[in-house]
Automatic annotation (TrEMBL):
Residues 51-143 form the Fibronectin type-III domain. Belongs to the protein kinase superfamily. This is Protein kinase domain-containing protein. Keywords: ATP-binding, Kinase, Nucleotide-binding, Serine/threonine-protein kinase, Transferase. It comes from the Eukaryota. One of its GO terms (cellular component) is nucleus. It holds the Pfam family Pkinase. One of its GO terms (biological process) is intracellular signal transduction. ATP binds at residue 192. Gene3D superfamilies: Immunoglobulins, Phosphorylase Kinase, domain 1, Transferase(Phosphotransferase) domain 1. GO terms for molecular function: ATP binding; protein serine/threonine kinase activity.
Length: 453
């Protein structure tokens, strides 16, 4: 990259290949803020003197795809992203796993009858990237029996003969989540038992139809649906790990490198579901789990999720308003940007251990939310970077039309903190975050989901 005398900057990209074609973003930042622009790059012919990065090795096992890959030649990488494209990914490349440190991954639960391609994107500490060759198209049999590709017209009724119930994992307003064991193969799963006296079958079917759209490492996976005389039962993938805040509190300290990495993963999952016009609408610490087997954060509980098709989606305020956006508090239509507000509040709590709007009563908390009444006290944010505070200020905005998209959030300069050497960053004590969790666990309306540690 070179800067000319007239002030313009020129970026030269060498060794491009046809599979590098796509949309690229340029991020400019200084002490006053940041700006982004995008360009579409189309590569017609490969560059002959640059050896291509071979595609990954792929082994298909039922509805799962096991893949591994070698490091790209001459590229000192730190992280990998896994992209997929096919009938389950709206025929465009979507990142389904981000910031992987290992050179292997398992994509689970692909839908029967789908056709999917994969590619790997390697990233180094300078922000440079290189993409692998695209894999062959993988065809998944439509005859596979194991998960339904549509909402079950007739819900299965043999849950007791298929699963053995174990301990409770968590309780919500309308449901209980248990760990279960599939009897025929001993596989661990999670079963969400929904009380039909509190939630109708149509609402449960909506949650299932939304979950069935997704194939992403950062999103809990739908497996099957049952009903019993007392419950609707949703079978989900089992996440081996606690909520993200609980995980952090197992250590005395963490730093902004870790914090920005976890928020980047969460935003990547949000960007994915928002591409389907789906809003989660219940982003809070208890619904973000840390998978100890993959070191990824996973978004769970899509009971409040909605397909945003018009301006008439109004979500009732139930329970604590602590992470609720103004449009929920005043019963205005919600949208994708409603999730972005919650990301800002979540980031504030993560870095400081205190809640930006919380007061002694729900009414007072709601008043602070409606007036966007928050600040960054030095006692709690003195050691926090200006980029982190700018990130929060840019997204905790009352007018949802002025909030950035999940894609814009991913491009914010604070996200680059995850690429830095964590040893050189200031430590953040988890003591205040632990006190925050103790208070949350004392609230009757907060369903804490603890997976196996």
């Amino acid at each position: 990259m070179t800067t000319k005398e007239d002030g313009t900057t020129e970026l030269k990209i060498e060794g491009v290949q046809p599979h590098h074609s796509g949309e690229y973003a340029c991020l400019l930042s200084n002490t006053w803020g940041y700006a982004t622009s995008r360009s579409l790059l189309t590569v017609i012919e490969p560059v002959a003197d640059q050896p291509p990065w071979p595609p990954m090795k792929v082994n298909q096992q039922g509805m799962d795809v096991v893949m591994s890959w070698d490091s790209p030649p001459g590229f000192d990488q730190l992280f990998y992203d896994l992209d997929a494209m096919g009938t389950n990914c709206a025929d465009s490349w979507k990142t389904i796993a981000c910031d992987l440190k290992q050179s292997n991954f398992v994509v689970e639960g692909l839908l029967p009858g789908s056709q999917v391609q994969f590619r790997i994107v390697a990233k180094d500490e300078k922000g440079e990237t290189v993409s692998s060759q695209v894999s062959d198209v993988h065809h998944l049999s439509s005859d596979f029996v194991g998960s339904d590709s549509e909402i079950p017209r007739q819900w299965k009724t043999n849950f007791s003969s298929m699963f053995e119930e174990k301990e409770d994992l968590g309780r919500g307003r309308y449901s209980v989540v248990n760990r279960v064991i599939q009897k025929h193969d001993g596989k661990e799963m999670a079963a969400k038992f929904v009380n039909p006296k509190l939630i109708g079958q149509d609402a449960v079917a909506t949650e299932i139809s939304i979950l069935q759209k997704f194939e992403h490492a950062g999103i809990v996976r739908f497996i099957d649906a049952y009903e019993s005389p007392t419950n609707f039962i949703i079978i989900l993938s089992y996440i081996s790990g606690p909520p993200i805040f609980d995980f952090l509190c197992t250590k005395p300290t963490f730093n902004e490198c870790e914090a920005s990495s976890y928020m980047y993963q969460l935003l990547n999952a949000l960007q994915y579901i928002h591409s389907y016009n789906v809003a989660h609408l219940d982003i809070k610490p208890e619904n973000i789990l840390f998978d100890t087997t993959t070191s990824n954060v996973v978004l769970v509980d899509f009971g409040d999720a909605r397909l945003i098709e018009n301006d008439f989606n109004v979500l009732p305020l139930v329970g604590s308003p602590e992470f609720s956006a103004p449009e929920i508090v005043n019963s205005s239509p919600v949208g994708l940007a409603t999730d972005i507000w919650a990301i800002g509040v979540l980031s504030y709590v993560l870095l400081s251990g205190i809640s930006p709007f919380l007061d002694e009563s729900p009414d007072e908390t709601c008043a602070h939310i409606m007036h966007n009444d928050f600040s960054f006290p030095d006692d709690f944010f003195g050691a926090i970077s200006p980029e982190a505070r700018d990130f929060i200020s840019h997204i905790v905005v009352s007018d949802m039309r002025q909030r950035p998209s999940a894609q814009n959030c991913v491009e914010h300069p604070w996200m680059l903190k995850r690429m830095l050497d964590s040893q050189q960053m200031k430590s953040i004590s988890t003591s205040r975050l632990a006190r925050f969790l103790e208070r949350r666990k004392g609230q009757k309306d907060v369903g804490v989901v603890h997976m196996k540690e």
